[in-house]
Design a protein that fits this description.
The chain is of the alpha/beta class. 41% of the residues lie in helices and 11% in strands. The chain contains 10 helices and 7 strands. Bound molecules: zinc ion.
């Protein structure tokens, strides 16, 4: 069975404040329910991660940055929710950062499980706007760089490729990877939206607004195999943001839910054809349907790679 990593503590509920940002803080629970109710997984058929430790966070983040997350004004800027600046630091740590530490632990666990099982899915994570010393765009912890660094330090991976198909550039991941010769990023993103300053990347694919599903899938079909053949990674982390969706308020691509399910299957299939383990993380997605898009796409992956 494909391991699906999830903890109920991923969900962000802070007295209704989470509704001030278009991000659905309960998206993870909804995806979990959408997989359980048709019987695709039993309620206990998920792997529960531990939250990432401070010692592990320090392998990627600076001490100063982690300390700065206790400052309400800094955290409000990262989350883009100004009212967070008025919350006591312990409240935002418990209600907002702790869920993110669980999901970061989930990405670490998913990467380990991908190595054992070929495919794994974390129902969260993908905070690709977080770098060593800064965060932004609702991302506080650089979960993917941290997860691959732990495996690299343990000698379990030699070369890693992140495939980032969230509509926004993975500037945080790219910034961390710039100092690591063994880690590369392939990134198809909308050119003129957040983040304002783009980071240099190994395989950048900036495309303007209005991209349709068939054009988008054509680009991935043509370029992803080339990136895989150039890097020859022994682990791929797939950042499967659902914000290229036509109804997403923070991006202007025009993919349907069906296109996104096809995209996720295409990526996992292309990577698995080469025998490379792949860990999928969910990343962004700001439409009301985001949970449903992910659930349908995961159902497609389970149908193909998890035959019962
Ligand atoms: Zn995004």
């Amino acid at each position: 069975m494909i391991p699906i990593v999830y903890h109920p503590r991923y969900n962000i509920t802070a007295f209704g404040l989470e509704r001030l940002h278009p991000f659905d803080g309960r998206k993870y629970r909804r995806i979990h329910e959408a997989l359980v109710s048709p019987g695709l997984r039993r309620p206990r058929g998920f792997v529960r991660p531990r939250p990432v430790t401070r010692a592990d966070l320090l392998k990627v983040h600076t001490e100063e940055y982690l300390r700065s997350l206790r400052r309400p004004d800094v955290l409000a800027g990262i989350l883009e929710v100004p009212v967070v600046a008025r919350l006591p630091a312990w409240v935002s740590d418990w209600r907002i950062l702790r869920p993110m530490r669980y999901a970061t632990g989930g990405t670490i666990l998913a990467c380990r499980l991908a190595q054992e099982n070929g495919v794994s899915i974390n129902l969260g994570g993908g905070y690709h706007h977080a770098a060593s010393a800064w965060g932004g765009g609702f991302c506080a912890y650089a979960d993917v760089p941290l997860a691959v660094k732990l495996l690299h330090d343990e000698g379990k991976v030699e070369r890693v490729l992140v495939v980032d198909l969230d509509a926004h550039q993975g500037d945080g991941t790219a910034s961390v990877f710039r100092g690591w010769h063994w880690a590369s990023i392939y990134d198809l993103y909308e050119r003129d939206i957040f983040p304002a300053c783009k980071e240099p990347e190994d395989f950048p694919l900036p495309v303007g607004p209005g991209l349709t599903g068939s054009d988008y899938l054509g680009i991935v079909r043509e370029t992803l195999p080339k990136a895989l053949d150039a890097v020859r990674p022994d682990l791929v982390v797939y950042n499967a943001g659902s914000d290229p969706f036509v109804g997403d308020p923070l991006a202007r691509y025009r993919l349907t839910a069906g296109d996104l399910a096809e995209r996720d299957l295409l990526v996992v299939d292309t990577v698995r054809q080469r025998g490379i383990p792949v860990a999928m993380v969910l990343s962004g997605g700001y439409s009301a349907e985001s949970w449903k898009i992910h659930a349908d796409a995961i159902e497609g992956i389970l149908a193909r790679f998890d035959p019962r």
